[in-house]
# Entry
Amino acid sequence: MSRRLGWVLVITSAFMVAELVGGLVSGSLALLADAGHMFSDVGALALSLFAIRLARRPPTARRTYGYARVEILAALVNGATLLLVAGLILMEAWDRSRAPVEIDGAVMLLVASIGLAVNLLGAFVLHGHAHANLNVRGAYLHILGDLLGSVGAIAAGVIVLTTGWTLADPIISALIAVLILVSAWKLVREAADVLMESAPSHIDPNDVVEALRTIGGLDDIHDVHVWTLTSGFIALSGHGVIDDPKQHMRILEDVRARVGAFGIEHVTFQIELRELVQLEKQDR
# Structure
């Protein structure tokens, strides 16, 4: 995955410079907005690449889970950056709508067309990994936002060339910014949920508890927690009460099997004997 991100980073960095020059020459806000977004893409891709490599470091005595959650922090930063970029585009679009500027539609169309090809390539390279990894999804959304920006710039270029209506440039830029805002907010929310140790959106902890209650010999369940450490790493901890200590290992195996059906592989489940639990309550 790091190699794929590296290639996309190189391609994106090279075209960012070309698009910036094209935006300045043509006077197009759509191109300048896309170049600004591409600048954030370069940072996002570099951050994602750094996070992936850092996350591979082994655990230490102090960081017992290693650096796995660095990828979630990278996703949060990328999402926040997207929100900022979209806000800046909206502000500039508003200013341009009140004071339109002359635009060279031909240059705008040419640069945007090349940008579309570059972004399609980047999106294709990252698409297969974007759903499984929140960090990669952050980088992918940056590329996808650029792809939309290129499509918008092409549409604006065609309109300017055929009609001379320069307002199409800020209007389309604003629409693209809104689309970026929606995707960025979803990414920020998901990253925040992981950092808050919320249960994964596709797992209902109540369903997990009900599945555990079907285990024969497991008489009571409490303090069950389900959370995501990082993308693809879902954990569970809980306590169960039993009467027969001889069933200890069998029940633990059943617990792992039940929660495994939900895609939970990292399980910490403490078995408690009812007699000891009752004695502890009496002592209190």
